[in-house]
Amino acid sequence: MSKKSKKGAVVGDFALFDVTYEDGSQRSNRRVPLAELGGLDGDEPAKTAIEAQDRKIAEMSGRQPLAIKSITRTSAR
Questions:
Q1: CA pair distance 73, 25, nearest whole angstrom
Q2: Is 4 within a domain?
Q3: Residue 37 is part of which domain span?
């Protein structure tokens, strides 16, 4: 028996998210492990995971991380 697919795009063990930043820039298909999502918090933990990814990227590039305005699941194709 197959599982019901979740709303939005899923690649392997990751859910994909589109991120809009306070400065108006956007990033698509940001990956968040499915294990970090669900439960009572739904997709809220995705913001925390993406912020952690952004801090790591900013640290490596020597730039300040951008503030996240909104996060939405990438639509399934």
A1: 17
A2: no
A3: 18-73
